[in-house]
Specification:
This protein is of the alpha/beta class. The chain has 13 helices and 13 strands. The chain has helices at about 10-15, 15-30, 35-50, 60-70, 85-95, 115-120, 140-150, 205-215, 240-250, 250-270, 295-305, 335-345, 355-370; strands at about 50-55, 75-80, 100, 125-130, 155, 165-170, 170-175, 180-185, 200-205, 220, 225, 290-295, 345-350. The strands form 4 sheets. Strands 1-9-8-5-4-2-3 form a 7-stranded mixed β-sheet, with helices on both faces. The chain has a two-stranded antiparallel ribbon with strand order 6-7. It has a two-stranded antiparallel ribbon with strand order 10-11. Helix 2 (about 15-30) packs antiparallel against helix 9 (about 240-250), helix 3 runs parallel beside helix 9 (about 240-250) and helix 6 runs parallel beside helix 7. The radius of gyration is 20 Å and the shape is globular. The chain starts with 8 loop residues before the first helix and ends with a helix. It binds pyridoxal-5'-phosphate (PLP). Pyridoxal-5'-phosphate binds near residues 58, 60, 85 and 197.
Length: about 375
């Protein structure tokens, strides 16, 4: 059996360091906030190249609080894509704002900047929420200047792209460091995953960092001085922060291992009737998922399962066609690239802990199944 990923493996690889870090938190009783959270926030900010990171309870909260912190609220329109995890759009809805979809690019399945530009020119848009899907950066090099020119803020959904690079302003930036703010998730399956839920907001703006801090912690400017009424409790806990610090030190190595597996897949699956993922020039994909596109996907998925290869579908249905988002008023056929992707995508086993020989077995199984032999 080769599973899609093995959630025990990151702990096993770093067992000694993780246990020592968890022990520090338990002995110090710094369960919420405290030195591990502060330490992680500073280290992750330095890693991303942003001045401020704020730990929160999960990635969905990170997006919602980031949107609120830049001033998105009831009546505002937020541009995003229908081909993403539901949390991207929930965050917008929970702010009282209205999601406005545009389709994704056919190559990397991130936001289509031409379509975004056309909407921003015609309609009042408060914010754009691009998604760095599967670990490949969205085209912020073109999107951010275009949005800024119209007074529109950019919040990145970086929940799948810890450590990815994208071209930006003649240099390169980490995913999460190019917009006004970004939301990260540390759900255990992510490239940087905790041992429970966790999330963070990264921001280049001091005002957004301050506002987010108030929103995430009961509007408290200092102990028992509450300066806004719309605060809440969304905090990263000490145990998660301690584990995240240990794993952050490994992130580049782990992403490198993902990239190596991806290179083996690229090589081994070339020439088959499959569409392979792309890495556009100037970008560094971190392969949160390695996603191929294939006709009669269900048959391929079942045949792989029969050979002991675990796969998944991220995501089987575009959000504008989901029951819960029907009230937004979109129809099937409006976002053909997203709809076609939803019908064809298949995620192959991918993690830093997949061995090269396991990757070879996956390649062999896919070759047999897809070429019908
Ligand atoms: C995981 C994920 C989120 C939400 O993160 P949680 O920590 O699960 O709340 C948001 N957007 C995308 C694209 C994700 O993959």
């Amino acid at each position: 059996m080769i599973p899609l990923l093995d959630l025990r493996a990151p702990y096993e690889e770093l067992r000694g360091e993780s246990d020592a870090a968890l022990r520090r938190v338990i002995d110090g009783a710094a369960f919420v906030g405290g030195p591990e959270v502060k330490g992680f926030e500073a280290e992750f900010a330095a890693y991303l190249g942003v001045p401020r990171v704020l730990g929160v309870a999960n990635g969905t909260d990170a997006l919602e609080i980031a949107l609120q912190a830049v001033g998105v609220g009831p009546g505002d329109r937020v541009l995003t894509v229908p081909f993403t995890f539901a949390a991207t759009v929930e965050a917008i809805v929970r702010c009282g704002a209205t999601p406005r979809f545009v389709d994704v690019r056919a190559d990397d399945l991130t936001i289509d900047v031409e379509q975004a530009a056309a909407v921003i020119e015609r309609e009042p848009v408060k914010a754009v929420l691009p998604v760095h899907l599967y670990g490949h950066g969205a085209d912020l090099d073109r999107l951010v200047p275009l949005a800024r020119a119209r007074g529109c803020v950019v919040i990145e959904d970086a929940a799948q792209a810890h450590g990815a690079w994208l071209p930006f302003g003649g240099r390169r930036a980490r995913a999460g460091a190019a917009g006004d703010a970004a939301g990260f998730s540390f759900y255990p399956t992510k490239n940087l995953g905790a041992m429970g839920d966790g999330g963070a907001i990264a921001t280049t703006r001091a005002d957004v960092a301050e506002r987010a801090r108030l929103l995430a912690n009961h509007g408290e400017a200092e102990k028992y001085r509450h300066v806004i009424a719309s605060g809440r409790n969304s905090r990263l806990d000490g145990l998660q922060a301690a584990v995240l610090r240990v794993r952050l030190a490994k992130l580049d190595e782990w992403n490198g291992r993902r990239r190596r597996i991806a290179a083996l897949y690229d090589e081994g699956l070339r020439g088959l009737p499959l569409r392979l993922p792309v890495e556009r020039p100037g970008y560094e994909h971190v392969y949160h998922q390695y996603v191929v596109r294939v006709a009669n996907r269900e048959r391929v998925q079942q045949a792989l399962a029969a050979r002991g290869i675990g796969t998944a579908i991220h995501y089987p249905r575009a959000l504008h066609e989901q029951e819960g988002f029907r009230s937004l008023g979109y129809r099937g056929g409006q976002f053909p690239v997203a709809e076609k992707a939803a019908a064809e995508v298949l995620s192959l086993p991918m993690s830093p802990h997949l061995t090269e020989s396991q990757a070879g077995e996956v390649i062999e199984a896919v070759r047999r199944v897809v070429s019908g032999s």
